[in-house]
Please model this.
Amino acid sequence: MSLADVGLASAVLLGGSGLLARTGGVVVQRFGGALGMVVAGTLAASGMALIAAAVAPPMIYAGMLVLGAANAIGASAANSSIAAGVSPSRLGLALGIKQSAAPAAGLLCGVLISFGDAHFSWRWLFGAGVLGALLPAIYATFRIRGLRNSFAEPHLNERNSRGLWAMAIGAGSATAAGTGFAVFLIPTALESGVPLHAAGSVAILCSVVSVCARIVLGASADHLHVKSASTLILILISLGGVGFLILASGGSEGFFVGAFLAFAIGWSWTGLAQLVVVRQNTEYPALATGVLQTGFGLGSAAGPLAIGMLIEYFDLTTAWIVCALLSLFGTVLIFVGRYDLALRSPTHKLASARRPG
Model:
């Protein structure tokens, strides 16, 4: 497979996840988070197995599409289970830990690839992924309490639906910038005169900081007003935008500062967004986060493709200026969406929200 094939495979996974996210939210809202985890784990294991047995790129694409479906259902199932089973005073911490899985998975993959390259073939690594994916499915099987009685499609009121889609588009825009930089971090470092080993260290450091920041921010948000939490999201995305402008200016010093702001800080807000949406949609947490996940998924798929084209036809400076504009656009839409989600009340605290039934 060429690098273009690898990029296309990633786009299939992330794009499929985004397109199927709302449907996954509906399925989980109807039948519960436990069954959703069973389905997601089974799909993930199937996708891993298909890739492990692949003899041509189309089988890889098919496996990635199945994994995208698993991600679409699994995200909503996890959010629904957390909303129902975690104390409201610790919900932010729980969602922050869950959202830290993405950068943590990146670190884990790097370790597995480095270790596996010397000891196992890549097929064995994907085969091990089959077992890993089945573990949560097996665990969730014992937690199914029966299916819902109502099979009518859950729905959001008009105001919440409008606000959610505004936040989803805004989140997708900001996510496109973040994932685009994550993919092209190393080329940016080399273009800025940073040695390869130093660029790799920056990537690892930013991933670690991103993991810790998502957890710390989630725990802190448990003690914030809803409006304050959403304002913090806007601040973090804006700092990421500043980081992109610094990256666009070039130079090794600018790279280190810009990378830290754009990646480690400017992409640490996803758990806060999940928390705000869950708190404002306590009756339908899976459906609501499914809408938000649509933005995350499509933004993650479109970002690297769009940034790659900008770098190919223009240069890195143009690409990072566009990312700064995407961050600005994201903050505007999230700012608008939070009012449609009834976030005006300064006395409504996240920690005092009613626990989902």
About this structure: DSSP finds 14 helices and no strands in the chain. The two ends are 49 Å apart (CA to CA).
